[in-house]
Each structure stands twice: as C-alpha cells, then as structure tokens.
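Q: Structure for this?
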Amino acid sequence: MKPTTTTSDRPCVVVFPDAPWNNTLFSAHLSPIAAKHPIRWVTNNPQRSLAGAPSNVTALSTGELQRVDWSRVTAFVLHPCWAAAVLPLRPRLLGAWTAGEAGEDQLEANWRGRLAGEASFVMTLSEPYYLDLSFRRDNVFVWDGADETSDWFASQAGLWAADGTDPSPLCRLQRQRREAAYREKLSERGENSVFMFYRSVYLYLLGDTAGAERELLGAFEHAVLQGDEHALDGIYRFRSALLASQGKLKSAVQAYEATATTPIERARAEELRRRLADGEHELVAVMLLRLNDDHREAAARLEKLVDELATRVGGDTEQANVADDENGESDAGGVQHAKGSTKDMRTNADGQWSNLYADHTSTARQLLVDSLLQSGCVRRASQWLGQRAALSAKDRTDYELLQGTALLLNGCRREAILSFLRATEMRQDAIGALTELSLLDAAVQRLADGGTATLR
Amino acid sequence: MQTVSILTHSYVDGYNRQFKRLFGGGLERYIRELCGVIHAMGLRPVVHQLSYFEPFRTSFEGTEVIGHTYELGKVSEAFESMAEEAEGLLIYASCLWHPIRFKPGSIGICHGINWDHGSVLMSTKDGIAAAFRQAVQQLDRIVSVDSHFQTYARATCEFDDRDKITLLPNSVDTELYTPTSSANRNQPRKRGYRVIVPRRLSYERGVITMMLAAERLLQTRGDLVIEFAGELVDGTNIADAFRLWHESHPAKKRIEQRAYSMDEMRQAYAGADIAVIPTIFSEGTSLACLEAMSCGVPVVATDVGGLNDLVIDGLNGRRVPPNSDAIADAVDSLLNDKPLRRKFSKFGRETALSFDISRWRKSWMEIIEQQLASRPAP
Amino acid sequence: MQSLRKASGNKLTAMMQVRNERGRYLEASLAQLSDVVDEIVIVDDASTDGTPELCRAFPKVVRLVELRRPMFGEEWKLRSLLWETAVSTDPDWLLAIDADEFLERRTIRRLRELIDQDQYDWAALRMFDFWGSLTHYRDDLWWNLHRRHTMMLVRHLPGFHYAYPKWDHHVPRLPFTCSALPGLRSELRVKHWGWAGDTSDRLAKYNRYKELDPDGRWGNVDQYESILDPAPNLVRWVEEE
C-alpha cells in the first residue's frame, strides 16, 4: 500500500519545535516516528532542547539551515511562528502540527492560519479545529485519541511523511473511519443532535451530500426538541451548502433565507436572490459555500470561474471584430469604416457585455482572494490581487500588506519590509505588520534557544 | 513683586521623577524661555504642572515649580484646581483643547494644530472645535505659535476683540545656531553628501515617509549618507519598523541614527548638506526647521502646519507635499543643484534672523505688560 | 425570485381537522373563518354525522379530504396529512384552528397586521378554556392554558423542513420545527368552547379519556379527574373589540 523508499534516497526529517523535547505537546506523537527515523531538531541550545530525547534526535542549528538540501527534507513544524523561516526553504513536504485554537495569543493565531494554509498537510490534535480546517484545505489529519483506528491513520500519516511520501491518500480513509465511528456511536447511544451534526459534516466532506442532508435534518429536529437556540443558524443553515453543492440553487437560497434573521443576513439573502435571477449561478453557489465557511470548495470553483470569465471576454471581442469586418466598407485607402449605426450598436453592446463581465470578474476575484486568505493561502491570494494603481487608498494598503506577507513567505524579507512601509505610509495602523515581524523574529529566537515562543 | 503663573501639563521630568531636569520637548523649552522673559521683566514666574505621582515643590533655574496630582483623564479639572491655587496673571501654556473653565483675565498659548490628519475622527475634531470656542470666549488673549492655528481659530470661533488671537511664532537663537564658516565653501568636496533629518522618530514627524524616500535616494546615490538625528523610543512600533528596515538594508552603513543633546545638534547641522523636515501632521512653528535654516542648511520641508509660515518654495527652501516620492524628488534635484543650495542657505539664514529670539522675547514682554496693565488693581 | 417573507398581501389559509362536529360549533366556526381567512382546508377523520357536507357548503373550503377510516389513533399521521394538504394550496400563512375555537373580535381585527410583516414567522395566541357556558372560562391549577401561549399561526416557507413528532396523541397542531424560527407571543385571545357544554357533555369526554388513556400515558390523570370538579374557579369573559 505504501510506496517503499530505499535507504539511499531516504529523506531527512527536520523538526521545528514548539518547546524542548520534554515539554513539547507532540512528544507522544513524535516518539513512534523517532523510533524509525533519525530526526534533526532545530535548536541552538541542544543541552536545553534535547534533554531526555532519544539518541537519534540530533540538533540542527539555525546557522546550518542554509546548508541543508531541502528538496529531500520533510519538515515538521510544531509552532506557527516558524512559518516565515521555514516556508521560503521549500522543503519537499511540510507538515504543520497544531494542538488547535485554545489559549493562544494573537501572533500565534495569525501565523497558525497562514502556516496551515501553506503547508503540505496539517496534523491537529483537536477535532473541532480539524473540521474547521477541512473546510479550508485538503490533507488535514486529526490525532485526538477518540478512536483507535482514526489515531492509527494519523500516526501512519506522520510515518509516511517522515519517509518522504505525501500522506494525502490516508486523509479520506481517516475521514471515512471517523464518520463510521459516529454512525456506531449513534446506533449505540441513540440519536442526538451533536453527533448527528458531526456525522453530517463528515458525510459532506466525503462527498455524500444526500446522506449529509438526511443526517443534518435529523440533527436539526433533535436540536429543536432540546430547545437549542442555535438550531436554525448553527445547524439548519448548513443545509444551504448541501443544496448548493447538489446544484439545487433555488432551494439552497431559500434554505439560507429561512435562516436570515439579522439585517446583514437579509441583505445577503436579497443579493443571492437577485444574482440567481440574473443567471449568475456559479457565483451564487460559491457565495452559499462561503456563507457556510467552505472556503476550500469556494476557492476551487472561483479559480475556474475567473479563468472562464477571462476567456469569455476575449472570445466575444474576437467575434465582434470579425463581424465589424463583414459590416464595414473599405474606402480607396483600405481604411475600413463601418455602417454608422451598426457599428455604434455593436460597440454599445460590447461595452455593456464587457461591463457585466468586468463586474462579475471583479466580484469573483474579490471573493477568490478572500476565500484564499481565509484558508491561509497567502501566496496564492497575492497572485490574484489586482494591479496596485487601480485600487482605492484603502485597498492599496491592504494590497501592500498582503504582498508583504507573501514576500515574507517567499523569503524576500527586505521587499516584505518595504511593502509594509508603503502600507504604513498610507495608513498608520499598518505599522502593526512590522511590529508583528519583530515579535516573530523574537519568538523564533526563543524557540531556537530551546524555549517557548511566548513569555508565559 | 508681581507674580505670573504658568499652568502646564508638563515641565520638569515628573514622569521619571527627575525634578532637576526638564522633560525634553518643545513645550518645556518654550516655558523655560518664557520664565526667562518674566524674570528679566522683574516679575516672579511660578510654574504649576501636573505630577504623575505625588505632589512636589521644587525650583528650576530660579523659578518655583509646583507639581499637582490629578486623576487620570480629568485634565480640565486638574487645570481648574491649579488655577485656584495660582497667584497673579495666569498663562495657560498647554491643553487648550480641553474643556477647561478658564479664570478671567488670563492668557492661553496654542502650540499648533496636531489633529490635522485625515484619519482623525470627525467627532474628535468637532470636540476640539467646541473646546477652542470656549477658550476663545473665556481667555483675554490666545498666543498662537503659527498662522495655521490663527486662521483656524478665526474661521471657527466667534469673538469681538480683533487682537484676541495673536501670532507669535517660535524663535531660534541665531547667535547659537550659526552657519559654519564660509571658508571651505569653494573647496572641492572631500566627502559624500549628507542629509540630516532632525526630528524625533515618530509617525507624525514623517519617519516612515522619510524611510521610503531614503530607499530611492540611497539606491541612486552611492555616496549619500542619511542621518536620522532624533530620539528613537525603545519598545515602540516605530522602533520596530526602523530597526527592521535598517538592519535589512544593503546600504545600512550609510544610514545613521542617534539622539543628540541640544549642543551637539549644532555640530550635526554643520556637517549636513540638506535638512529634511518630512512632517505628516502636527507641526506648530517647527523649531527644527528654524534651527536648520539658522545654521544655513538648505531645507526640504513638507507643506504641513507652521512649516508653511517658514518656507517659501524655491526662495528659502523646498516645500513639498508629505509623501515619499515628492520628498525624494526634491532632495535628489537639490543635491544636483549647488547654486540653489547656496541660495537656500543664504535666504534660510535671513529667514531665521527674522525669527530671532530677541524679537520673541520683546513680543512676550509687550503682551505681558499689556495684560498686567489691563487688569484691575488688586 | 420572490422573497420568502412578504410584508403585505399574504394569503391566509385556515387548516382544521374535524370529526363529527356537525351539531356542535362547526357551522359557526366556518362562518367566522369565512369572514377572516382567504381559504380553508379541512381533513375529515371519517365522520359519521354528515360533517363533510356541512363543510362543502362553505365556498372558502378549497380542499376537503374525507378519510374512510379514522386516523385519530395515530395522530401524527393525521396532523401530517392536514399539513401537506394545506401546503399544497400554496398558502403564505396558516392558521391552525379547531372546530370549537373562536377568535375574539379584537383578534379578528388585528389578524392581518399580525401576518403582514417580514420579521417573524409564527405567532402564538392566548387560548381560554370556556367552562360550562359561553360566558365564563376556567382558571385554576389544571386549567390555565391561557397563562401560556399556543402557537396557531405560521408562515409557510417553501423548502423549509417541517416535521411532526411521531406520537399517537397530543401531537402539536403545528410542526415543532417551526419554533426554531423567530416568532411572536401575542396577547391576542382565542376562545375554546370544547368544554363550554353542559355537565353530561363533560362527563362523556371524561369517560372517553379514561377509556383511551387510563394510566395517563398521554395526558395527566389528575387533570382528567379535575374535569369532574363540582366547583371550578370561573372567570367572566369580557369580549375586547
């Protein structure tokens, strides 16, 4: 099942730690890997960091990082503050390990999202965070002790990655196991809304939207019977995503609208209705997915949509030119001038069409950038953001901030700093990005020193 | 001996409990000079200030200084209670934008507008306008250090007395701040060009803008050194930004930063080819600009606040919009234009002379004499 | 595409399940409803007294389902059938009302403004159990329905998941999932005349309950017993305009 590797091209495992070996959150998870693989542990203070570590875990100083052949390395990053240091190295595989969301400070929270977005796969210890992330990207694993088989898949993912093999085929298998575990729990203990809702989410992620819908409605009924005040927006609303992915857009919009109680939600429902009536089907589907936080699917669809819209505009312009040639009359000099009104009409129509496409395209692009950012895919997002000059002052600041972050993750530190400075020149509070970089540097220092990222 | 009491939020360094030292800003220097004027008139100055910690009584250069405790956020009440205790003619030297109930027969000083930025909320600006209207009603006279506040007050407030708002720009000691001797003027240049930015490093004083301008200038001019001659406060966002930029800069050796004492500042000007005052907002009469001009250093300044009172573009310096491109362009072309630099140096010095401190002292004496004469006998 | 919630021009449809109501209040009820609602939908649970004919006499009854065999013993099926039938007529709002329930005049006057809005999707009213006459209602330990609210009006949202609990008795008149939607508890009043008849009427009901549910699985034994209370606390009704 798993591809084998020969010893000679066995890649290296480099761990960017969150704490010394004795204190890391992940020692139970790393020990089985350490039993089979030599591990390089990034630290400038091996005495402190590696006290009590197995013998084949050896130190790698930050000074030596530049000398490593990263094309043959699997990096396990145990703390998000390493993101700007590791991503530019472009290791062959990058696994982001995270406990979840609780109890972290703002710096960690910001970078956790970005690291999770840019990594090859994510390993988390928390199920709620696992599900949240699964709506933002593929290749997420959970190791939470809830089920033996599920944990086994997680540990296998770690071992495959250590061996240099992309663990993504295991992701779906783990998911199937977890869905089955919920099914078992429900049949043992009887129906309850929490388990049914989780099961519904798993079925959705596995692509069984019909099954997901059935389970969801059951969860909804139980939630109402229990008097759960979030039965409507917390549970029923998800139906709109399920219907949207089945292509039942009218029903999906209705399902969303039923849950729209605040002025903002009503305005969204109104917009969805309007766009549906205008025939903007793909955009409506994407908006519904985003309203249900499925940014992964939304971004995938939006990338296709933006490409499509770009080709469509080009195609129509071509057609229009051909028609002009047919309508026009050449004078002696070979200069073409078209029969007045026909050409005017065509220009107007072109103008209207291209305005419509421009609006679609601009909306689709904005949503694409936003969904990519919500998924932490900073570098992909920055590629889609429009030219600087066309943006408003506020947008230009956001543009520079985004570009700066992308540059940082590509290892272009100085250019990143300049982007942040340009953002700050336009808006004073953008200086936070520079302070954040300082804090990040300090955190990496502490981590490399065998400490923890923040001064707890 | 008649007393003139000066009320201020800051004078001696109560924050660091250094009662024998002034807190190092423009306001404190201003008050110090004003005390000198009052002494010279044979009157007795007393400074009442807010104390960060416990109340205190001390003396600085022969002037009694009384520190009053206050409740954080209750500045108006603090000034009112200081006014109760103070004797003689009262001069409210700061915080005029607070809704203070001023004692009748008093003078106020406004050191410039510091809310002149697009990002300051309308509600804040409205609140400030309301406070100033009250101040203009209640005070006999407001001394404004720049024409911008004078215009603002005239345009926002109602008042009968046309002399109510008096323009009294800040000054420079032209005997202290002098140009270097012209002896080495015509000799071939021995060193590369040197641009000085004589301000504390802060956002409103334009440090970010200047860093971006420096990017272009340092890249195109291999022999240029840019010196940020001002304080950089540890632990601030600005310090983070500056250090990140400086440390990653390929030409980091041509970027200098240090804080100077007032004496050393004169030497810094002496070595500079151009002084840049890149203020974004909040500038009264810029002392730095006056000092640079007084030292004969050609200036490139932004069109903000009181800088507009000092610099006439093309005559005694360059005056440009507050963005990095405009500043870089101006510095670049000025570095290429020695005759223009000479012209700015000469006219800059002339400008500074008309702001000499002797005139300032004389004006204040007149104001205080007039005010004392107009008050009823005790 | 129309908004799910209309703030005006709502079609109001009354839905009612009946069984042998002829000779009681049915005619008066349908007469009142004909003045108040736009359409009426009825499911007749195998009546043997000509109730369906009486229903047919009212033109606003747009659907009448006549069951051959009674579904009374599987109440959730009956409720679901009534619901589905009513929904098939494309109503905007539904009024779930029984043949022995009457709206107070003030309620009738205010009914339209209750439904012609787009803020909430159900309304619950105060229901009063009249006891032994049409002039007094009962208010004591076991008879205090009017101190709570009874959901009687719902907006029909196409596509929404409406469900009844699969019970045989005491199934709520409206799908329980409605309560997840925003709703209003109104002070408008409804009169229930089911207990307004004479003592023998009430005794007959008592006997029926004891026969169907002797152990109080679906209802409360003490409440059943209280039907026979010789001196219940009665309050005079004052009709509000």
